[in-house]
């Protein structure tokens, strides 16, 4: 009897590991928010699955698609004798978009697998149309199933991906979309196990169905070609670009319209990345002081996509950064994609307004979106507000630089970031990483990312936040990666991790590169409301003295000094910060506390930015 039970048990749980051919995400649809979409945001049912029981059988092999024990399969049986050991229910729901950590106490420190399920009805408008399910981001790995069949897998927690839904799979009523989300940290992941930020898990950004004609506009890019002209207006401007259609069956025509410029350009489609170019007699350029955007329509005979695009140039000439041909100093700030007062990821247009509004109060013209691509709402808001943007992939600290798979993963995240935001005038810097430790292997890896970024987009600057070496009064910049970046950017914490704030008064700088120099981080921790003398760590006075010292030092920087993005706008959650009474799981280098109160240093930095802005007028 016992034998029989074991055999039955095995039959039930053991599944052959079929290697079904699963789509990897195709390159994502540009401008998804202006397409024909149906939101799948809202309440999703969930199952927490720390042992990945819903994915592997009891021999830890991936279950076959039709195994009823797999969590992508929904139990509908009414047979009272049937053994059922999983199910979705309205008593366990999570909001999408949203990280799970902030939604229920039991999730605060959870890292692992959670299964999400959403049911929906859908009738396509035309039988031949295509339907995609689009995820603006899932952290970190997603396996997506519809009605029990796998649509695909995506790796990388901060970039969008989509899968086509085969018509044969779609039902008009009661489709089950199931997503296995896994945010377990791993040595071979990007980022790796060690980061100084919270590993918020879940379907952290919008989810939607996107209906397109069978031949659809996949992506497009429009950019202004540089000339010798300078200033806010351009005569005889050349706009170049490219367009890619999905499923183009014959020679199609694509029309680009910019109504405000009376411009209509017809392009004969010749395949992926069909290039075009046209000239415009007079163009007002996008800039931080006048973020002018034009309504642009991309049309085929089947559909029209509308976007708002600004045109500007960004270049390095000698050791200067030129915006529209004129030198610019970047008055910046770093930020995480986090709403500190609510201890959660930011994910909506309102959140974007909150974060960038706080940045704007500092009188910045530049934001460093650290340390991963932030959501599209933030970048679009920056476009609208005239804030220049540094956008980065999470190649952070000690990822495995010797692994080709890790490099491919990083490249894929880079491609997805660039593809999504290639039409945002605000984005001026693609950053390929942060504080990566110097070695030949590291440099080869990072150089491959730089080459990839340049091949994908030669109209923006490439950088990476490097480390600076402080020794006997000298800050030395000599990381070999600086040879390959357009801008040399360094994180320096003189007065916090090294020495005391007064050391900044005498510090000297040397760089082996004659390139624009950015200070991509500098900062000190303070607990808002803790007052003491300026020698006392964690006091607002210490942080203020640090900023005063840094600013005095910056006023003496060598030629080529082109901007700063201090660390950081808000206090942010980090499991690495455990000073009792002071940190309690927060990195305290914010200029604004987690409760939204400004610290003294906020005003000191703002005054510096006001002075710089005045001097440039
Ligand atoms: C850094 C890192 C940043 C950290 C910061 C700190 O250099 O780039 O991610 O949070 O320092 O506070 O130590």
Q: How would you describe what is shown here?
A:
With 617 residues, the protein is of the alpha/beta class. It folds into three domains: 23-78 and 85-212, Sandwich (Jelly Rolls), CATH 2.60.120; 215-302, Immunoglobulin-like; 321-616, Glycosidases (TIM Barrel, Alpha-Beta Barrel), CATH 3.20.20. Helices cover 16% and strands 31% of the residues. The model is unreliable at 1-26 (pLDDT under 50). (2S,3S,4S,5R)-3,4,5-trihydroxy-6-oxo-oxane-2-carboxylic acid is lined by residues 196, 371, 434-435, 491, 521, 567, 587, 589.
Structural class: alpha/beta
CATH class of the largest domain: Alpha Beta
Shape: globular
For the record, the CATH architecture of the largest domain stands as Alpha-Beta Barrel
Alpha plus pi helix count:
7
**Low-pLDDT runs:** 1-26
